[in-house]
UniProtKB/TrEMBL annotation:
This is Dipeptide ABC transporter ATP-binding protein. SUPFAM superfamilies: P-loop containing nucleoside triphosphate hydrolases. It comes from Nocardioides anomalus. Residues 350-401 are annotated as: Disordered. The keyword Cell membrane does not apply. PANTHER family: D,D-DIPEPTIDE TRANSPORT ATP-BINDING PROTEIN DDPF-RELATED, TRANSPORT ATP-BINDING PROTEIN. Pfam families: ABC_tran, oligo_HPY. Residues 34-274 form the ABC transporter domain. InterPro entries: AAA+_ATPase, ABC_transp_ATP-bind, ABC_transporter-like_ATP-bd, ABC_transporter-like_CS, Oligopep_ABC_C, P-loop_NTPase. Belongs to the ABC transporter superfamily.
Length: 401
């Protein structure tokens, strides 16, 4: 069998900036308590799975969320769909803060935000027929009268490329790719405005992956659905997502439009991830073809490193990286980065770009000018989405759109 390529043209950015936000996430945090064993269980720590992430997903757009295993991608997706309650932060969906809604108040919004799960084997109940699996949301939310459920299920199966006559079959009668299509049909049943696709193809055979990505792009275009597309590496989201956020140990370290991220990544972690993508143009990694190998293990999210969480694996780390957490600064019209030494590969500055924020550091000055520079950095580090101003890394001044 030949592998069909991902043959849909890459989605362009909406012309009016990134478009109106459908979802705006501010400082979203999800910690899981770690309890002691024994009869009296006490909380002895917290897994800081997601720790203050901010981003927006534009209406009908697609944001990719990428990072190594355990960095908090699924947890972010599960909090957004309210499968988990957030520990802190805000999630505005069409202006309404989902984080503050009770389970009952969330019910109408559940229709609008659906999830496609990573594992098409465990996410479908093996005892239910496809007709029941896809039909249940239609019945629960009373989307169509009971006597129309079957015909709607068949329509949905057709949309995702399955035989509509197979509605009475069980999941084990389908291949992995077909099961993922069933999961997509279930997610589409409620005509959501936002789909959280949690590594929707990583459990599938390589030959099937492109077919499923093509299908997701088709449904996005046809129904205008916005996507939060979660993936392990940067190769799949490159095609699907006009904007991509890179996560490391519960934090976003870089977020940018496709062009900036793949050609002018500024964070050492993004640069390392890009060097592992075989078909990224040479220019994206500064003309270097060799892979940047990340040494050491990802630290535990129960006890993350102080300051920059990436510092234990970063070749550029200096003392300031252990003392201060770098803010996520907007450094271009559609690029933000959290690194004291942000710069293109091979061109990282010798002095921290964030120095004005830390007048107490050895050798720093506390002049009025420094204070002004610090205010400028804070100004471009505050909100999710793209502001009209950004820090020009070359000159240290703020540029206005
Ligand atoms: N229910 C839970 N209770 C306690 N810890 C959890 C829970 N769910 C996730 N975690 C922890 O939170 C961290 C982030 O997990 P998460 O599943 O979000 O990562 P991920 O980026 O999706 O990883 P993967 O790529 O392997 O799917 C991990 O350390 C994980 O062990
Ligand atoms: S802040 Fe320091 S440790 Fe973190 S990525 Fe930048 S250089 Fe590396
Ligand atoms: Mg996951």
């Amino acid at each position: 069998m030949t592998t069909p390529p991902i043959d849909r043209p890459a989605l362009p950015l909406p012309e009016n900036g990134t478009g109106e936000p459908l979802l705006e996430v501010r400082n979203l945090t999800k910690w899981f308590p770690v309890n002691s064993s024994g009869v009296i269980r006490r909380t002895i720590g917290q897994v800081q799975a997601v720790d203050g992430v901010s981003f927006t997903v534009p209406k009908g757009g697609a944001l990719g969320l990428v990072g190594e295993s355990g960095c908090g991608k699924s947890t972010t997706g599960r909090v957004i769909t309210r499968l988990y309650d957030p520990t802190a932060g805000e999630m505005f969906f069409e202006g309404q803060d989902m984080a503050k809604l009770s389970k009952k108040q969330m019910l109408p919004l559940r229709r609008e935000v659906q999830m496609i799960f990573q594992d098409p084997y465990s996410s479908l109940n093996p005892r239910h027929t496809v007709g029941t699996i896809v039909g249940v949301p239609l019945r629960v939310h009373k989307v169509v009268p009971d006597n129309k459920v079957l015909s709607r299920v068949q329509e949905l199966l057709e949309v995702v490329g399955l035989n509509p006559e197979h509605y009475n079959r069980y999941p084990n009668e389908f291949s992995g790719g077909q099961r993922q299509r069933i999961g997509i049909a279930r997610a589409l049943a409620l005509q959501p405005k936002l789909l959280v696709a949690d590594e929707p193809v990583s459990a599938l055979d390589v030959s099937i992956q492109a077919q499923v990505v093509n299908l997701l792009q088709d449904v996005q275009r046809e129904f205008g659905i916005a996507f939060l597309f979660i993936a392990h590496d940067l190769s799949i989201v490159r095609h699907f997502c006009p904007e991509v956020a890179v996560m490391y140990l519960g934090k976003i370290v870089e977020i940018a439009d496709r062009e900036s991220l793949y050609h002018r990544a500024m964070h050492p972690y993004t640069q390392a991830l890009l060097s592992a993508v075989p078909d990224v143009k040479q220019a994206a990694i500064g003309g270097r073809r060799e892979r940047i190998r990340l040494t050491g293990d990802v630290p535990s999210p129960v006890d993350p490193p102080s300051g920059c969480r990436f510092r234990t694996r970063c070749q550029l780390a200096q003392e300031i990286c252990a003392r201060h957490e770098p803010p996520l600064m907007q450094i271009g019209p559609r690029q933000k980065v959290a690194c004291h030494f942000a710069g293109e590969i091979g061109h990282h500055p010798a002095q921290p770009v964030t120095a004005p924020l830390y007048p107490e550091e050895p050798g720093a000055s506390a002049s009025a000018q420094t204070q002004e520079s610090a205010d400028r950095i804070r100004e471009v580090s505050s909100d999710p989405g793209w502001g009209p101003r950004w820090l020009d890394l070359g000159s240290g001044s703020v540029v206005e759109r």
